Amino acid sequence: MRYVKGQKELTRSRILEVASRRFRGEGVAAVGLAGIMYDADLTNGAFYVHFKSKEDLLQEVIVDTLNRRLQAMIAASAEGLGLEQGIRDYLSPQARDAADEGCPTAALVAEIARHPEETRDLFTRKIGEFLDFIANNLPGRDPITQRKDAAALFGMMVGTLQLARAVSDKAMSDQILEGGIEAGLAIVRRQQ
Fold first, then answer.
1. Global pTM?
2. Cβ–Cβ contacts within 10 Å for residue 38, how many?
3. What does the alpha-carbon distance between residue 108 and residue 161 come to, in Å, rounded to a whole number?
4. Rounded mean pLDDT of 53-68?
5. Minimal CA–CA distance to 62: which of 128, 136, 144, 146?
6. Considering only CA atoms, which of 141, 172, 134, 133 is closest in space to residue 156?
7. What domains can you pick out in the chain, each with its CATH number?
């Protein structure tokens, strides 16, 4: 049976979308290929037409999801929404409560650290692109300070979101988010 023109790309995109949502919401280790394919309404055998392995799928999810996130940040910046609004959005209760739709870094970073070097190298390159974007939006600093502040800001935001998701006390979670916003804004507003 032949695919209709463009069908293979649509199928691959559907698998990526489902895997991205499931990986972020449940964790890579907790999600099996059969579950991904079931949610994508495809047979298990169809997986190997598109990906070599679950690790290959994870790598594609990292690239796809982080590329989309970066493009959204660039678009928001072009619309005049700066880092301050980005911090507020990233550390919002809505972002906290929607892990399966949110930042793949906050959702997956602990697991990625335990994956093969090839996956970690890919993740490192993509995070480098985020740090470059953030650094370029921190004016009034020398390049070394820009990069350090970008790394501190991004790391603080990811950790804040992870901690806010992990605690069971909603009031405490809200305080963690509010504290993260204040700390992030202090980094952005800091002058050399």
1. 0.89
2. 13
3. 12
4. 96
5. 128
6. 134
7. 54-189 (1.10.357.10)
Contacts of 30 (CB under 8 A, 6+ apart): none
For residues 18 and 5, what is the distance between their CA atoms, to the nearest angstrom?
22
Distance between CA 140 and CA 190 in Å, rounded?
9
Convert the pLDDT of each residue in 95-141 to its tens digit: 999 999 989 999 999 999 999 999 999 999 999 999 999 999 998 88
Question: Roughly what angle, to the nearest 10 degrees, separates helices 170-189 and 143-166?
Answer: 170
| Cα Dmax for the chain | 64
End-to-end CA distance of the chain: 64
3-state secondary structure of 190: coil
- In one letter, which amino acid is 55? E
- DSSP assignment of 104-167 equals HHHHHHHHHTTS-HHHHHHHHHHHHHHHHHHHHTS-SS-HHHHHHHHHHHHHHHHHHHHHHHH-
Tokens of 124: 């490192």
20 with 39: CB under 8 angstroms?
A: no
Query: Buried b / exposed e across 138-153, counting CB within 10 Å, b at 16+?
Result: beebeeeebbbbbbeb
